[in-house]
Amino acid sequence: MIQSKTETNTGSYSEKYFQISPQILTSFPKFRPPLNLYIFKEKMNDIEPFHYAGQKLSKPKQKELSELCNEGRIFVARSDYHIYAEHLSKQLDLILMDTNLKEGETADILIQGLTERIREFFEQPVQPIFDTLYNDLLVLTEYLWQDAYREKGLLKRLLCHNTLESLSFNTLIFGLSLYMEIQGKELKRGYLDGMAIGLSCTLLGMSKIPEYARNKQQKLTPDEEKKIKQYPLTGTNILQKLSVKNETALNCVKEHQERINGTGYPDGLRDKEISLPGRIAAISSAFSHYLAQMPQDNSSTPLQISNKLAEMPKLFDSHLASKFKNIIQRTFVELNY
């Protein structure tokens, strides 16, 4: 537990250092911590080096380090944040134990970790890798469940890269935000978890289509077009083979390309035939794909894209699209997008 006196005395150093928790310290390699560690000297009211990265810690020094950390006297430099973030991104559950990170720093770590987990799963959709992704998605939903306003820090960090993992991450965050918006106080954690699984895996089936066909500028051949229109089913089948039975998740993946007027695929569902998760996934997925074009289309902004979706009632649920536009407006207008 952090002692109040230590916390008060080190307040002036918060811009240069942040305190490391005992749980995170134990996640480092025992003999060779990967970054510099600093000790707060109370009598001198100063922070000094305690251990340099890469050097071996003796057993007595390990014991001393543990005791000092329990007293709240061990710090790491914010200049080493990239090393710290890389470490936490591989063990995302640790962010729930670290109250010393700024909200933006936590958001960056979540983005780094989740995009990497999504990429790994799409490249090799097998049970152990899915289990890792699933556990990290539960970290995200717990993080948002504890404080729904944390979504804003994630929303501001949209990824404008045309990669499957970036598109999937954007779909995940914007879809969860829309779901939390419409559920309000009726929000249930179990459904939030299901939405996270489904939204992050909307493009799972697309990963099985050759890249040249995914990015083809010319007209698709009939065979290529058929494969493209089957990718939501491909992704659904992969999840089912991995024993995913969550209907909310499966509906997100299977229905995110369905459209209100029945012109979508793979089943040509219309209006309320499309589930609520499917309609949310449709909007967030379309928004993410438009975002990926922003670097080439300087005339578009996130707000203009959300306005465009709201003006397509034949394609997207008009009520959800209006709610989504409100989310984008309050998130990005203040950033002058």
Produce the secondary structure layout.
Elements: H1 4-9, E1 17-19, H2 22-27, E2 37-41, E3 46-51, H3 59-70, E4 74-77, H4 81-89, H5 103-123, H6 127-146, H7 151-155, H8 164-183, H9 189-200, H10 211-214, H11 222-241, H12 247-255, H13 276-292, H14 302-310, H15 318-332
Antiparallel strand pairs: 1-4, 2-3, 2-4
Helix pairs in contact: 4-5, 5-6, 5-8, 6-9, 8-9, 8-13, 8-15, 9-12, 11-12, 12-13, 13-14, 14-15
List descriptors.
single chain, 337 residues, mainly alpha, Hypothetical protein af1432, 2 domains, four-stranded antiparallel β-sheet, 4 strands, 55% helix, disordered N terminus
SSE string: HEHEEHEHHHHHHHHHHHH
Distance between the termini: 42 Å
Determine the strand fraction and express it as a percent band.
Answer: 5-15%
Q: How many distinct beta strands?
A: 4
* Spatial sequence of strands, sheet with the most strands: 1-4-2-3
The description of the largest β-sheet is:
4 strands, antiparallel
What percent of residues adopt helix (DSSP H or I)?
40-55%
Low-confidence stretches: 1-8
Rg result: 23 Å
Describe the structure.
The chain is mostly helical and 337 residues long. It folds into 2 domains: 4-80, no CATH class; 102-335, Hypothetical protein af1432 (Orthogonal Bundle). Helices cover 55% and strands 5% of the residues. It is built from 15 helices and 4 strands. The protein has a 4-stranded antiparallel β-sheet with strand order 1-4-2-3. Strand 2 (37-41) and strand 3 (46-51) form a beta hairpin. Helix 4 packs across helix 5, helix 8 runs antiparallel to helix 9 (189-200) and helix 12 crosses helix 13 (276-292). The longest helix is centred in the middle third of the chain and has 21 residues, at 103-123. The radius of gyration is 23 Å and the shape is elongated. It starts with a helix and ends in a 5-residue tail after the last helix. Residues 1-8 have low confidence and may be disordered.
